[in-house]
Amino acid sequence: MLSPEIRTIAAVKAMGMSVEMSMLNPQNTPLFQSFMPRLKELPHALGSEVYSLQEYPEGYFNRFDPQQTFKKWALVAITPSTHLPNGMETYEIPGGQYAVFLQKGMDTVIFNEIYSQWLPQSPYELDDRPHFEILGPKYKHNSPDSEEEIWIPIVPKS
Fold this sequence. Notes:
Layout: E1 5-9, E2 12-21, H1 28-35, E3 50-55, E4 70-77, E5 89-93, E6 96-104, H2 109-121, E7 124-126, E8 131-135, E9 147-156
Antiparallel strand pairs: 1-6, 2-4, 2-5, 3-4, 3-8, 6-9, 7-9, 8-9
């Protein structure tokens, strides 16, 4: 059984790039191939973590359709004085309560386990805020040794 850490965070000011995509038409690789070389343009980034954030439309999980589009972001946390390079946008990751899962390796089955097993059995329900992964120092693209944090927005069940 999954056992996430429940964390409450303040809003995070971030900067990066986004693309519209769907589960059937993923654009993760092109987005990150465009974004990662440009990190050197952000000398005031806070830390080395990269946020892989999904901004789903309201009700996305109530009527799941793999063709339905959502906005995917590649972001880094920034200081308020960070210069906005051409082709990048600012984004504020909303604060609130999140269930944080540690993902080791490349197996994406964990997402199915979170939404179909852990969440229904937990005292929480999804909140209508972005979902994201933090790709920190142990993240290694396409490696079985990779580690990342999966952040799922939650609120107590009413």
